[in-house]
Design brief:
Number of helices: 6
Number of strands: 7
Structural class: alpha/beta
CATH class: Alpha Beta
CATH superfamily: NAD(P)-binding Rossmann-like Domain
CATH topology: Rossmann fold
Radius of gyration: 17 Å
Shape: globular
Largest sheet: 7 strands, parallel
Number of domains: 1
Helix content: 40-55%
CATH architecture: 3-Layer(aba) Sandwich
Length: 227
């Protein structure tokens, strides 16, 4: 069975992606929280799947290289991210750097560690989870939206670099997802669910050899009611 590595897998969208893929791939679940990863691994094991919990700070380039460079991974889902929605005049340097480090730098570190193996084997699929803010800016999103614009450029350029080498690269851009993201509470029925994003990832991965879905824009079917 092929192996899929998912970052930010301890909760939210990443956890849902791991659960959606667990019956077709051996999962390597990556995040900082060992306890949450072990709970995910137990859940997947109980349903007959296989999941390795790998606690790792993916903003640490040296740690990523040590932990991942020797792995044979068929699917990489770069999902980990953070959003601090705040006007530029109120944002601290630390808040800026935190978002850039996780949303952009870490995606490069993980991809750079695993891509050479994919190229050597002439197969693999990289799925980057972006956001509709990567094309639609929002108030308070100068940094977050900026990183997601960068994810678009990174993903689409990488796709052109490696497509003839047998490696596929796809971008999934969800709109509002009911995860409690950026400090907003959960329980908004009009939003996408994490499971919906997970199903979109699986759909992209299950295309036949002659087809590559390079970008998916996924938004709620309805908008939030003001009533």
């Amino acid at each position: 069975m092929s192996t899929a590595l998912i970052t930010g897998a301890s909760h939210g969208i990443g956890r849902a992606i791991a659960q959606q893929l667990a019956d077709g791939w051996n999962i390597v679940a990556v995040a900082r929280s060992q306890s949450e990863l072990e709970a995910l691994a137990h859940d997947i094991s109980a349903r007959g799947g296989r999941c390795r919990a790998l606690a790792l700070d993916i903003t640490d380039h040296a740690a990523v290289s040590r932990a991942l460079s020797s792995l044979d991974v068929d699917v990489l889902v770069n999902n980990a991210g953070i959003g601090i929605i705040k006007p530029v005049a109120e944002m601290s340097v630390e808040e800026w750097r935190t978002q850039v480090a996780l949303n952009l730098d870490a995606m490069f570190y993980v991809t750079r560690a695993l891509l050479p193996g994919m190229l050597a084997r002439k197969r693999g699929h990289i799925v980057n989870i972006g956001s509709l803010t990567g094309r639609n800016p929002i108030v308070g999103g100068a940094c977050y939206s900026g990183t997601k614009h960068a994810v678009v450029g990174f993903t689409e350029s990488l796709m052109l670099e490696v497509r003839d080498a047998g490696v596929r690269v796809s971008l999934i851009m969800p709109g509002s997802v009911d995860t409690g993201f950026a400090g907003h509470g959960k329980g908004a029925p009009w939003k996408l669910t994490p499971e919906t994003v997970g199903r979109a990832v699986r759909y992209v991965l299950e295309q036949t050899d002659e087809a590559l879905i390079s970008r998916v824009e996924l938004r709620p079917a309805r908008v939030e009611s003001s009533k």
